[in-house]
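anyone seen this seq b4? input:
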Amino acid sequence: MNRSLACKRAIAALVLAGAGLFLPALAAPGLDRFRTLDPVLAARVLALDPDRIGATDVRDTLSAVPAPRIILLQGSVAFVTMAPFAEFLGAMGYPLDRIRNPRDGSLSRSSFGDSAALAGEIAWEYERDALMPMLIGHSQGGMLVVRTLHELAGVFGDTIVVRNPKTGMALDRTTIQDPLTGASRPVVGLKVGFAAALATGKLARVLLGQWSMLPLLRQIPDTVDEFSGYSIPGDPIAGNLFGEEPYRAIGTAQVRNVTLPASYSHVALPQALALAREPVTRQYIDDYTPGNPAPMPADADVEISNLVHAADLWHSIKKHWCIEAQRALHAARAAP
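predicted toks r here
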């Protein structure tokens, strides 16, 4: 190669770098894990139907590929955590290391955190792993989930600082290199694949002085593909004794409202581990399809409370684990 051609290529590379047009291979170390997947395994992943992921698909295919981070946010009462629900997910086949808080190893996070900080951590995770994290919150944790979605939509500020979840330290930038496209883009506007809120009501927002969330709590912005909201009729803690206001999309998000049995307990909703260990209830969870569930099992040896949202959430988590893996595989194959 002559010097003139080499010089032109070097200048072109600098121009592309200045425009943020990096190759995806350089954007996310996580994308390399998909680029080097066994071709047979990669083909199995791409052949999966995200809406119909069975127990065999989880065990033999999804468990062999990287999984998105799941951020579980607990309610305002510290002794009621989401750790039991994390253990349920682990028993169903989700890697617990992808649920643990990178900072302290806990399976459940406080809902008194800052939504801008959480949004910045989501951006860091996505940039590194090429997989968009999922958000699931119980009670006040659901409020923080919805607030974070509005944070990503730019409701509370024009910029969001990228934040390292391992150290909690903010980085000196408000943009990331999108791992799937290679382009530089702001954190504001990022779209989460799946988010959910369990028994999140407005009464506690009033009692805790969270006034800014009252008009936003049931409005789901475009910064999530699919959102599920779960409510218990007559839940005194959530404050819906006289009816529940449904969640609604203010744009293109797919929003589902799921009414749980009135017998369910607000504080006991995270308790689902026994359902994964009992063969009858586990089979129900594995086979569950939203909109067309099988009859509730009558011969289980465990209390079947919490079975509805446990099965429904597991279906969505499997679905978006598959979707994120397929997106990363397509991006890895497209990259030079």
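The chain has one domain: 24-334. The CA atoms of residues 153 and 182 lie 21 Å apart. kinda curious what u guys think
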